[in-house]
Amino acid sequence: MHTVVQAVVLGVLTGGIYALMSSGLTLVFGIMRVINVAQGALVILAAYASFELFSHLGIDPFLSILLLIPAMFLLGVAAQLVFIRSLRGDYAPEMSLLVTWALALGVEGLLSVAFSTTDRTTLTSYADKSWTIAGYQFSEPRVMAFGVAAALLLGLYALLRYTKFGRSIRAVVQNRASAQLLGIDPDRVSALGFGVGASTAAAAGAVYGVVYPFNPGSHYDLISRLLSIIVLGGLGSIGGAVLAALLLGVAEAVVAVEISPTWAAFSFFVVLIAVLIVRPQGFFGVQERTL
Amino acid sequence: VIRPAGLARGAVFLAVAVAFPFVFGAHWVVNMAIFTLMYAALATAWNMFAGYSGYISLGHVAFFGMGAYATAIVFAHTSIGSGYKPFWFLPVIGIGVGLASVPVGWIALRTRAITFAIVTLTLLFVFQNLATNLRSITHGSSGYALPVPTFAVATYERPFYFAMLGVLVMSLLFAWQVRNSKLGLMLFAIREDEDKARGLGVRTTGAKSITFALSAGLTAMAGSVWAYYLTYIYPQYAVDPLVMIGSVLPVFLGGRGTLWGPILGALILVPAQQYLAYKLGASELYLVGYSAVFVAILLLLPQGIIPSVRALAERWRYRGARLEAEAARMKERVA
Questions:
Q1: Are B248 and B46 in contact (CB under 8 A)?
Q2: Does the pLDDT at position A289 exceed 70?
Q3: What is the pLDDT of residue B312?
Q4: Average model confidence (pLDDT) for chain A?
Q5: Cα(A182)–Cα(A74) distance, rounded to whole angstroms?
Q6: To the nearest whole number, what is the mean pLDDT of chain B?
Q7: Is the minimum CB–CB distance between A8 and chain B shorter than 8 Å?
Q8: What confidence score (pLDDT) does residue A288 get?
Q9: Label partner for A251 (CA 20 to 30 A): which of A197, B76, B180, B211?
Q10: How many residue pairs bridge chain A and chain B with CB atoms within 8 Å of each other?
């Protein structure tokens, strides 16, 4: 029982980081029907940036988030303008999937050229420390990572709920044409929204690098998990993505201790397949029509 | 319906393809040709499902891997005879994996459009994961060795070349047959408007599942020849996202839903890709170049070569007709 509870704690802490990454992914899908397969690659890019800032300038990875968010926001806006905007027509969503996949390969290639393919971890002074509460271990960096992820998710919620920009995003998600009639420029919202999505990858990447070892190829591990999460949560639903991330994080951690660590990653897919059989649209999704 | 032009095109292609290894004997040329044929076959098989029905499957490489592993597992314990036995075994692999793909297709095809693309992409990771984890069956990450055939050294690649050509021709025939049958009409109707097609009585689930299985079986046969040719397979190479992209890209370049588009695309892309790999050497830079080509094709040529050329020809003809009409009007006015 003790190990299971410990696994649940670990799973929730991990799930928080996944929730942050997938919130950006599902938000971008909601706004412009684009699945950004490069989200995982952006996370790894941010992890490398934060690693470099820490090892050369001594900037704490959690502080580097403040630098990385605006930088990745601009990068995301630029990527949307250059690569995504020109996609039109019936197959635009599927095409966007392939284009962003190509971008992910490009980022992977550039990172491998710059940093070689060996594993890195951002080794802070508190990397191995942990708090013990009621006999359960709470690893310090993981708790901090969870805290940051939770704070940023709340920030994202506030942004969407209370600002004018957030309202225009929600309007575009609900009905692009009506939003346009009300004077919202969907192209502008799409570009900025893509930037917001990339920012969540920036923040998540910095904390990811503290908790996990990473290399340029790690983005495949991430994106396979993130895709399962957003399908499970229902495409476009941030609340659904957060719930799915926590659920899958816990499932992964429990399988790792109870069955075997080799099958931990697989629990994502088992849950996904089970859900597809019962409810193909995910927790909070709506049934999709072709095109 | 067999049209003379189509028959001639097929005959010329087959004649050139059969003569090729006898004209160009150098090992590296035939090696490149084998990979060109492989991607042409993979692209044709993929296009038969995805191009015709509009369902973009990004998990087909899982069936490629299944074909590769099935071959490795069977011939690790069975004699390969004079070396040709694995080729005779290809139809069994095709049918077996085709049947095995039915439940996979059933689950994935419960979703549509972009969700289908995402779910099939996760299937790719599922199978890669299985190939690594099911150690008792696949030997895990240490991989599987196949027996090395005793083909004559000077023409060692030739049997693999013809086997791959056989898989390509078979894919092409199936793609052509599906196009010209009721099944093809059903798939095109699904691509245009699935709900309407269903409303009109098209058995959409059946049509999609059958084509998915056919396409998966053909993909597996290409994987089988590939595994035997390399004689060594690992999970990350047998179920490789880059192979998946390699089978999708020629279709986009040549033209989705066309018969010859995927082959044309592969004939252009694969030699270019091999040249790039040779030039840039270091696999990391190669990846950057590859992604640049990938983006360029998707953004600049989303329609593909064959449909673009066709549209151009159409416009040309239309312009000719318009000029003639104008000339006639002028003549009338003068008279």
A1: yes
A2: no
A3: 84
A4: 85
A5: 27
A6: 86
A7: no
A8: 52
A9: A197
A10: 142
Q: Which residues pair with B145 in a beta bridge?
A: B232
Contacts of B200 (CB under 8 A, 6+ apart): B189
- pTM beyond 0.90: no
> What is the C-alpha separation between A184 and A193, in angstroms, rounded?
13
Q: Say which residue the tokens 């994996």 belong to.
A: B97
Confidence (pLDDT) at B335: 66
**A37/A103 Cα distance (integer angstroms):** 8
Residue type, A237: S
> Tell me: the pLDDT tens digits for B15-40?
898 888 888 888 888 889 999 999 99
With CA atoms as reference, the chain B residue closest to A99 would be B295
Q: What is the pLDDT of residue A291?
A: 35
Contact assignment for B294 to A227 by CB distance below 8 Å: no
Is the complex ipTM higher than 0.95? no
Nearest CA to CA, how far is A125 from chain B (Å)?
A: 32
C-alpha to C-alpha distance for B113 and A90, rounded to whole angstroms: 10
- In angstroms, the first-to-last Cα distance of chain A is 48
Q: Taking chain B (335 residues) in consecutive chunks of 10 residues, what is each chunk's mean pLDDT?
A: 83 89 86 92 94 89 92 83 82 92 88 83 86 80 82 84 93 92 89 87 89 94 92 85 88 88 90 79 74 83 82 82 81 75
Distance in angstroms (rounded) separating the CA atoms of residues B19 and B31: 15
Contacts of B247 (CB under 8 A, 6+ apart): B39, B42, B43, B45, B46, B60, B61, B64, B219
Dist. CA A241–CA B323, nearest whole Å:
59
Pick from B259, B286, B264, B266: nearest CA to B275 = B286
DSSP 3-state of A37? coil
Question: b or e along A199-233 (b: 16 or more beta carbons within 10 Å of the residue's beta carbon)?
Answer: bbbbbbbbbbbbbbebbbebbbebbbbbbbbbbbb
Chain B environment of A92 (Cβ under 8 Å): none
Amino acid making up residue A40: G
Give the single-character DSSP code of A120. B
**Of B142, B172, B199, B195, which Cα lies nearest the Cα of B254?**
B172
> Please, which residues have CB within 8 angstroms of residue A264's CB and are 6 or more apart in sequence?
A252, A253, A255, A256
